[in-house]
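User: For my dataset I need records formatted as: sequence, then structure tokens, nothing else. Please produce one.
Assistant:
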Amino acid sequence: MKNFRKIVFAVLAAIVLVSTVAVLTPRAVHALAAQLVQDVDSPPRNPWTASCATANTTTNVAYCIISAVPGYEITVQTVTVQGYTSELHEHVILQLVTTTGGNYEFWNNQLGYVITQPEQLPLELPGYTGTNQHNYVSTQPVTLYVDPTNPSTVPPTTNTIAVYFQTDSGNPHGMAAVVTLTGYVVNLGTPAN
């Protein structure tokens, strides 16, 4: 009788152990699979920043190009500009142009000048003398998406962000700007050819 009780106890213990493993194992497997799927569906965001400086010009448009890396979707969140124009202008238009999904995407902002005095700006700008020039400094929030995996057939071409610093007429004493964009990138993988 004692042996029978031991056998029944061992069988019941084995059944409880197998049942526990059968119930808990799928939960652990499902949790692990859900975490893997989540990581694929929501790739990590990596900090991104890029800058460009326009050349000094006496025309009404100074521009520069920022390259975007194929396979990475960029979200621009902040635009910082530091520039100058002739004293003839009190406002400039800062414009960013890119393509997303093969379509143009624009961001425009009008800036008023901050100071007029013959002093150097903190950054060295091409052609800046401070004489008869208005200075512009601004940091603005923005949401601009850049998807370099979708081709464009018109300028700006795929994989670029075009930056324009514009006035309504020429600048006899020159104009130029330095523009810095900050945000994040998401690695989309290698684009298909």
